[in-house]
Amino acid sequence: MPRISLSLLWLALGAGAAAGCGDTALPPATIENTIDTVHLWALNGTDVGTPSALDLLAGIPVRPELGDVFDVGFDIEPDGTAVLIPARQLGGSETPGIQVMTTSFDMVTRAPLEDYVTDSSTTIAQGTVLTARSRSSSVQCAVTVGSLPRYAKLEILELDATDRTVTLQILANLNCGYRDLEEGIPVN
Predict the structure, then answer these.
(1) Alpha-carbon gap, residue 187 to 178, rounded angstroms
(2) 17 vs 180, more confident
(3) I want to staple 118 with a disulfide (CB 3.0 to 4.6 A). Which of 97, 122, 124, 130 is the partner?
């Protein structure tokens, strides 16, 4: 095979690979990021029928005892410690995770890709700020790269040990694979 033809072959393969990468880009974001306030009741010691977990794919509180799919549960341990529990610890998916942040809720503008705690509870207190990664889902994603998670930021606004509840603010980015955590239509 002549040298020029081999060079052209490599050029063609490189162009084909680059074109293939374009096929895996995220679709444009269409869902606006908004901040919401939610209440969760502890998994133990509260009435049946109260939501004790978050479904980050939908950005809503859910009842895990109904078989609702969730990413993060809330509980208060016997010693009074409030915790968020990744789904894996409660028999669910292995991919959801939580990460405590060292900045304010407003300063968290993009979710990290790594270092989420997926295999143990995270202690929380009023003022704790966290990022969370959901389980992966391809149901609502129109991309060819497979399943993607959603990302969120949370802030613990109030813990009530008597009622065994937590009030938190949440901004869940419901766009597939996007990590921007600011209000409005995300770019990244």
Answers:
(1) 8
(2) 180
(3) 97
Cα dist from 73 to 88, 164, 166, 180, whole Å:
10, 13, 11, 23
Q: What is the per-residue pLDDT across 52-104, written as a single tens digit (0 to 9) for each?
A: 999 999 999 999 988 878 999 999 999 999 999 999 998 888 889 999 999 99
pLDDT of 156 above 80: yes
The 165-173 sheet, strands edge to edge: 35-41, 165-173, 151-160, 129-133, 97-100
pTM of the model: 0.84
The C-alpha atoms of residue 89 and residue 174 are separated, in whole angstroms, by 24
Q: Which of 45, 57, 116 is nearest to 82 (CA)?
A: 45
Match 């490189």 to its residue by tokens: 14
